[in-house]
Fold this sequence. Notes:
The chain is elongated, with a radius of gyration of 15 Å. The longest helix is centred in the middle third of the chain and has 22 residues, at 21-42. Helix 1 (2-18) packs antiparallel against helix 2 (21-42). The chain is mostly helical. The model has no long low-confidence stretch (mean pLDDT 87). The protein contains two helices and no strands. It has helices at 2-18, 21-42.
Amino acid sequence: xxxxxxxxxxxxxxxxxxxxxxxxxxxxxxxxxxxxxxxxxxxxxxxxxxx
Length: 51
């Protein structure tokens, strides 16, 4: 999933350099929301370490 988020960001950067501003803003927004949801789901959980 992380690779797909990075791929979406790369495509957004390429579309921004090509001049498609609306499409690139939309892709940046979607990738940001996906990254926040991914972080909220998997990075917030505290690891259970044996003592």
